Amino acid sequence: MSKQLSLKQLSVPIFCEMFLRYLSLIINTVMVSQYSNSLVGAMGAGNQILDLFITIFSFLSVGCSVVIAQALGARNFTLARKVIHQSLFLNALLGFFCMLFILWQGDFLLTLLKIPNELLKDSQIYLHMLAICLFFDAIGIVMAAVVRVYNHAFFVMFVTLLMDGFIIFGNYIVLHHTSLELFGIGLSNVIGRVLAIITLLLILIFKLKIHLKLREMIALEKEVVKKILNIGGFSAGENLLWIVQYTIAFAFVASLGKENLSVQTIYFQISMMIMLIGQAISVANEIIIGKLVGARYFNIAYKHTWVALYLSLVASLVVALLNFILQDFTMNTLKLENVLKELIIPLFTLSIFLEVFRSFNIVMVNALRASGDAKFPFFSGLVFMMGVSLPVGYALCFYAGLGIVGVWLGFCADEFLRGLVNAYRWKSKKWQGKALV
């Protein structure tokens, strides 16, 4: 199990992959904003809808990853092969119907987002191109999950670099040498994703020796699909709870005025970047725990998660402290006005605690999910996100007069308490009876 237990070999390329995706988004936004501010708004609306749909169908990749990891740990290669084929078919099917839905009802979705009339035409063009991307994303997400769980996270990082590099280059050509604007940017995204799918397919065939067959894809088995959905369904539910929580909290802050809303938007992106290190370690640990649980090495899995938690807490604390130290540089780089600086400064301090608590929570959630105990973190999320984060944030924001800081204190309370509860669940070892294989 030595190769499987290398947290560093998995977490480093996973972090780089996540960081590259985030960096690509920033670079593309800056490139488009330099060309036209109105196109940024039109592009942002499409990206928001794309992110929502990716969240909806990425749950199958989570279930796929956990079941394959447990199957490999148990050396049940037949089950692993079945999960790969059936997950790819189901997600491709789901991605296809999501694509059709956006092509059919995309204008309605943009209306719900209250896109200004002057941006509507560009938003429609871009969203229709992104709809095609959804189909390829649905397939790519599962393929990437398979490659990772077979201990080749480096290849996924390479594919991400290839795809993002092509998209950035394509966008530059579109904006500076054509008049295609958002249609061209959408086309660049589609071609980049096709290249990624082809590369991942070659890795599956030649590196992992997995030869995909259509006959095996469409031969869905009730027990196999049930195992995938058992993990993926609750994982999707937890992610949707998180989105609902932040959307409602966003509305709290929006009611405080445009300055607070600007700070919320800016610092949320900073927070997401800090969280990448904890996410990478937790995903790497999830793969390892899945294999250990499948092999019935419960004690090793139990101890390994505490080691991963310690590393994640230390890494998150270091990054959060660095963010705090560099706060003046960050604010000056973003050219924030004084009124925005006064609002955002307390969040730099609060992040030191929030990011450590969040890292604490996500490591425990992913470990429980990898063991097959996905139901528990879903219900703990339901209780604490809806019952602690939002009520506490609302009370501190409006009744205690803390404003945006109160909302973020609500986030802290949720992450800390939920982390403790999930850690207690792990310590109880009740997850040992939840294995899927």
Automatic annotation (TrEMBL):
| Family matches, as InterPro entries | MATE_fam, YsiQ
Judging by the UniProt lineage, the source's domain of life is Bacteria
Entry keyword Transmembrane? yes
Q: Where is it found, in Gene Ontology cellular component terms?
A: membrane
Which one of the record's GO molecular function terms can you name? xenobiotic transmembrane transporter activity
Give UniProt keywords alphabetically.
Answer: Membrane, Transmembrane, Transmembrane helix
Q: Does this entry carry the keyword Membrane?
A: yes
- Bilayer-spanning residue ranges: 12-32, 52-72, 84-105, 125-147, 154-175, 187-208, 228-254, 266-284, 305-325, 345-364, 376-396
Q: What is this protein called?
A: MATE family efflux transporter
Q: Which organism is it from?
A: Campylobacter upsaliensis
